[in-house]
Design goal:
0% strand, mainly alpha, 17 helices
């Protein structure tokens, strides 16, 4: 969940700048800009999809409902794909940051300090709450043991199955995947040329479906969030980060790329549906469903960049979605905990209603409205009064005292 999307790009060289003899239209901006608000809109879509999935489809399912209520809850069952959109966004943003900072002093220091200040304070605060609140009885569903908290402290919550530990606060697995990506990917980008980075990203996108299929065929658990099974979303975003700095710098090329991604991604899902691609219990579904989703989201991301830099930018810059994108990191971290607390209150004061919710859509909506208001309020307060404090330290702490001040190359947003 990335906060405001801000880049400070190096000055373009003459060959990059002179893409046309005619002056650009005032309505058109570069595809890559210092501020890209449309990406907050995408984050807003992603976080809302995940929250609706967890608090409707995942928590209750449509089985006890009928009519429009059943259709609504069934529609939220696909909201888990919001995580894929977050991965594609992160791959694009982080790779772009690293590419633009590649030749600068303190490449690693600047990146890791800024990432730590953005991510760690809120993350470890949540771990502290998970260590305390379940033991007070104030969380209805949650029982979090020390083994899970210990592994999560080291960003290994996506690998807990390898240690025989249950995943007890599921949203943390995606943050572990991203953190592992942050640890390894800067060295890859530093060591390779842009073509090499592109080749590495393509390899990730191609290898993950093979790994998923291999686990399925050998009878192992293929649905876990091991990094080598789910990193293709990050790889897809990295591909776009490289291409937008080279071949896709012109709008006509970007439009063709967008159309190609949407056709390929949707084509995999639609044409593969009769062969089980949409089901996670078949070889094709396990292997290719995430691939189709990631490629579709890659097309959505490139479309948002085109719209956000063109005359129809209002289509990609929706204030409500941007607001949710702005608080997406905090909201992602705490929403399940907040709804557990809401369930504690309901079970304590309205025990009969608690048992009626799965078959009562009106009660489901009331629970969601109350929990969402509480979660959004906490996320806003966290963003303004807690996370912002550490964000203000980024430039000061990331700069080495031995180096000359450098123009900021990339101030990325983060989950």
């Amino acid at each position: 969940m990335l906060s405001s999307t801000i880049y400070n790009f190096p000055v373009l060289n003459q060959s990059q700048a002179d893409t046309s003899f005619a002056p650009p239209s005032p309505a058109l901006q570069p595809i890559l800009r210092p501020v890209m608000p449309e990406l907050d809109s995408l984050r807003g879509i992603a976080i809302l999809a995940v929250v609706f999935f967890h608090e409707f489809g995942f928590s209750y399912g449509p089985h006890h409902l009928s009519g429009l209520a059943r259709w609504f809850v069934a529609a939220t069952m696909s909201g888990w794909a919001g995580v894929n959109l977050f991965f594609v966004l992160s791959g694009f943003l982080i790779t772009g940051i690293l590419l633009d900072a590649k030749g600068t002093p303190d490449y690693y220091r600047r990146f890791y300090v800024r990432r730590a200040l953005r991510i760690l304070p809120a993350y470890y605060t949540v771990l502290i709450l998970l260590a305390i609140l379940p033991r007070t009885g104030m969380l209805w569903h949650r029982s979090v043991g020390w083994p899970f908290i210990t592994l999560s402290f080291f960003y290994l919550s996506n690998l807990v199955g390898l240690f025989g530990v249950a995943s007890q606060y599921t949203v943390l697995w995606t943050l572990a995947v991203e953190e592992q990506f942050y640890i390894a990917w800067p060295a890859v980008v530093r060591a390779l040329s842009r073509r090499g980075v592109l080749a590495a990203a393509i390899f990730i996108v191609a290898a993950c479906p093979v790994f998923r299929g291999a686990l399925y065929l050998t009878g192992f658990n293929y649905s876990v969030g091991y990094t080598w099974l789910v990193a293709d979303g990050l790889g897809a975003g990295a591909i776009l980060a490289v291409l937008t700095r080279e071949r896709l710098s012109e709008r006509s090329q970007m439009r063709r790329f967008t159309i190609l991604c949407l056709l390929v991604g949707i084509g995999i899902l639609v044409l593969g549906a009769p062969f089980g691609v949409l089901r996670s219990a078949t070889l094709l579904g396990v292997s290719l469903r995430p691939t189709g989703i990631n490629i579709t989201f890659l097309g959505l991301l490139s479309a948002a960049l085109l719209l956000g830099s063109g005359p129809f930018k209002w289509l990609a810059r929706r204030p409500l979605l941007q607001f949710f994108g702005w608080i997406s990191y905090g909201l992602y971290l705490i929403h399940m905990m907040v709804f557990d607390f809401v369930d504690f209150l309901i079970s304590h004061y309205f025990p009969t209603a608690m048992h009626s919710i799965p078959a009562r859509f009106d009660l489901m909506i009331l629970r969601f409205a109350f929990g969402m208001c509480m979660a959004v309020t906490i996320a806003v307060l966290s963003r303004i009064y807690f996370e912002a404090y550490f964000l203000r330290l980024k430039d000061r702490w990331a700069r080495s005292p031995r180096s000359q001040p450098q123009p900021p190359v990339a101030a990325a947003a983060s989950r």
